[in-house]
Amino acid sequence: MTARVDNHALGRSGRRKACDLCFTKKIKCDMLQPTCSNCILYKAECTTGKGRRKPNPPARVRAAAAIQHHQQPQYTTANTDKTEDRLARIEKQLEQLIALQSSRPPHTTGSWSSSQCEQGGDSAMTLSNADFDVAFPSRDPVVFDSASTKFPVAMDLAPRDELPLPPQADIMPIVDHYFDTYAYIMPLFDQKSFMAMLYQWYTDPSTRNKASWAAIQVVLAIALRTPIPELLNGCGGSDRHHRANFFLKNAQSVVSDLVTRDKDLLGLQVLLGIVMLFQNSSDTSPASVIIGTAIRLAHRMRLHSRDHAELFSPDENLQRQRLFWIAYVLDKDISLRIQVPSVQLDSDIDIDVPPAKPADDVGVLWTRDRQTCFNHHRSMIHLAQIQGRVYDWLHSNSSAKMSRQSRQQRVQQLDRMITHWYSTIPAAFNLENLDASIGECALIHMAKMYHVYLLILVMTYGIYNQDSNWVQAIRSGDRNAIRNLVLGTERYDSGAASQKQVRLLPGSWHKVVQVSRGCLRLFDMCIPTECLIWQCSCPHFSGMMVLLANLLIEPTHADAVSDEILSARAIQLFDKVLELIPDPEHYTDIRVIIEELYNRAVLVINEAKSQGGDDQVDVLEANLLSYETLDGDPWSWAAALPGRTDFSAGTRDGDGDSLGVLPLCR
């Protein structure tokens, strides 16, 4: 038998055209079966089972292989040395870790103290007391220390929990404060479902996830920034600010995992909570970006439509509805403040506003005697609708091409809408009637709402704009020019700035003066917390200039004395805010205008007093009262801002985060 292999069993590249003998002797084979002619001649077995000889590689390939073979022992040795060095460093770190852990008392339950806060609120903490190979990026959550009395502390070498939280007993007072003072006005989280999630977090670790962890962080951060900080025992001053930043940064570290979470409401709730925190801080630019993401997520969940209402229970539909309107209010407010288009179109909304009298009283404010109520949440939605129209009709790119006559007509329509909105507010909650009878927390919420109202008036009439005619008249010192402006009898020039200027409607100046006076008085009654300062500062300072301008043209009116005091305190507040922001030089022009207006108001008032026979007393200067004379130093939170004036000795720390800077009206 022959050992010949069939040709079809060989690959195309290995197909043989000669038997083994002929291939070896390099002679032509006739491939006869079963034995070729040459094999018969040489009396040899005719087979074709041997493989093709491997071709000789090119010379340069052989040279490269020789070099690699020559260097291989050296490379292996170097790599081995590097590995051994790294293992030695790791062993050293493990020994340090064991020594550190053994020096601590046994772990029972984690705790943190609010009495000290020296590490700041930045979650991008580094370990400077050892040489570690592992780097912790800034997006990693900060880990709680179970033994130290300082909060927060440097990150543990080996975190015991990927999603750390303080002990339940420590955070419950803060969570209760959130639902007692904030959640019933701004229904971001439902208390029943949130408390169930919080309880499950601590009792069943297997159910933990980033969304619920971030939701808890947001609630803690908002609670530490809500009104009446003295209710948080041991959590006042700069410590609150540091800890609020700490929780906010933890929530931000998982935002990328939440922007597409549409299976439940947690992702949207966390995004909206972060927007609220930045909106009530000195920098709204992150809020303007995140609110766009939140609105798009709400669209994906069809919160703006009735389409999927039948898929949810009535309680779930109510919560979905409230969340959408919260996003809507934030979107319109941010749009008008920073002069950018809003994301949500009014024409694309297919759901109703919340009921005027909800069964659970969420969003409703009551007087202390429980005789009168006011649906704050519903009113803010209607106010946000007006904010959207103010931007679309007067400040958008398309509105810039309108004629002055068309612009004037739109101002008249907006004026009617604003008047109607104010007429729906119960008398007990009117601006001129508000006092402590509604409760301190409710008073702060109303102060923020009425400052939005003042912002709408200012933006509607273009009263405070550096390019407007009336600011130019103020800087000129011409009282007649100012009087003509407020009476609507001024003559317009042909400039581009004048093209956007509108005549004040009859009674409009009086309305703006009344609202400015009411807002400054209301602000003066509230605790100047950081959220109140940053959210109200722009319309507040515009109202101050309105009062000073009104003193110029009518220095002896009935409220002149109170306006002097309110304006003086607003000037002091303005100077204090300039000390807190990182770029005060950007507001030099505004400060110059305020100083010019202040000096002219003092001069006019003194002249009026002289003509009336009164003593020439600088009333404004005498009423520059100090906020720091208040009990408890409500400005202690400012000590946590980095690179600012030290308002509270012994509490400053440079590691905090200011959450950025709300531009004043420019």
From TrEMBL:
Q: Which SUPFAM superfamilies match?
A: Zn2/Cys6 DNA-binding domain
Query: What are this entry's molecular-function GO terms?
Result: DNA binding; DNA-binding transcription factor activity, RNA polymerase II-specific; zinc ion binding
Domain of life of the source: Eukaryota
One GO CC annotation: nucleus
What residue spans carry the region label Disordered? Answer: 101-121
Q: Where is the Zn(2)-C6 fungal-type domain?
A: 18-48
What's an example Gene Ontology biological process for this entry?
DNA-templated transcription
Q: Has the keyword DNA-binding been applied to this entry?
A: yes
**Annotated InterPro entries:** AtrR-like (IPR050987), XnlR_reg_dom (IPR007219), Zn2-C6_fun-type_DNA-bd_sf (IPR036864), Zn2Cys6_DnaBD (IPR001138)
Principal localisation: nucleus
**Which compartments does it reside in?**
Nucleus
Query: What species was this sequence derived from?
Result: Metarhizium anisopliae BRIP 53293
Q: Which Pfam families does the protein's record reference?
A: Fungal_trans (PF04082), Zn_clus (PF00172)
Family matches, as CDD domains: fungal_TF_MHR, GAL4
Instruction: List all Polar residues biased stretches.
Output: 101-118
Q: What is this protein called?
A: Zn(2)-C6 fungal-type domain-containing protein
Keyword annotations: DNA-binding, Metal-binding, Nucleus, Transcription, Transcription regulation
